[in-house]
Amino acid sequence: MSASPNIIFYTDRQCPFAHRVYIALAELELPFKEQFVDINVPRTEEYLKVNPKGKIPSLSYNGEILVESGIIAKFLADAHPSHLIPPSDSEAGALRRARVDFFVTTYETNVLSLVHKLMFTPSTQEAQGIVSSMVENIVQEIEPLLVNAKPYFDGSDKVTLAEVLTASFVLRFISLVRHGILPPSTSNELATRAPHFTRWAQMIEETPNIAGIYEEMVWVNKFNEKIANARA
Fold it and tell me: Which residues are in the GST C-terminal domain (predicted)?
């Protein structure tokens, strides 16, 4: 494929799923045109021609339309071989993809799903149970998969596809702790019981290509608003 493809990225910078694609584009140093989509109003006819379902993100790559953030990020990583992941036709590439897929699925199932549940939980008591489950899942399910992070996934010294696909959610998890949406004790408990996860999360927050577009307070305010609406 072309070293300098024509890329149009249809996006909302506040969307954590679109954030995945921003990370991939930054790490691959691919130039692109941003086309912002206002998710607070009905989609325009123009955008519905790009993605009839109206979802974001979408990406035009030399005129070919791709949808769904994970698919877009994986496509970019495959189309432009780099440090993100070894080539798919190599044994190392196949093995790394299997590890990345397992890690991402584990994070989505054990952490991300509970963050979403927390957002719409009407009961404070139920929310406390969700938080306890989230912490325990990180300790039991995520921590063992990060034992060899150096500092990034699977012993890499550079950002990998695993970070591309999970880091936007990790940043937002950190924000939940920092701004008191999760109990302040969460940070100390994870530092003690999940030190590899804690170091990995700190590195994510310190990586410019990951954290660069994240507007923390915009997201925190929206999260708090959704919690307030759920408990009204």
Answer: 93-228
